[in-house]
Specification:
Strand content: 15-25%
Radius of gyration: 17 Å
Helix content: 40-55%
Oligomer: single chain
Shape: globular
């Protein structure tokens, strides 16, 4: 009978695999291979779901088309009226406030 693996080991292995996939997706976007980059993000999300972990905090991707966001390449970032407005090449927009930075 197979032995059960501890939860922390599953999460550690999952995080290692997700970090590899995230780096591969960033490289694929820089090389212009968007479909390959999308596939890497799909796989990373599947691993995160299975290992019950979260995506890395510094990794941004479009929730609509699953393309990793690289400002200046496939994403535009604008600062307007206390908000950060980001738009993907697919047309998806999202806004985040930056009030803490304005107060300083």
């Amino acid at each position: 009978m197979a032995k059960h693996m501890p939860r922390k080991d599953i999460r550690r292995i999952g995080n290692e695999r997700v970090s590899i996939l995230v780096n591969l997706s960033r490289e694929a976007v820089k090389e212009g291979k968007d479909e390959r980059a999308r596939r890497y993000v799909e796989l990373a999300r599947a691993v995160c779901g299975k290992a019950q972990t979260e995506m890395p905090g510094d990794f941004r991707y479009c929730k609509k088309c699953l393309l990793p966001l690289v400002p200046g390449t496939n994403c535009t970032v604008r600062l307007t009226g206390g908000k950060i407005v980001s738009s993907c090449s697919c047309g998806n927009l999202w806004r985040m406030p930056y009030l803490k930075e304005q107060r300083k």
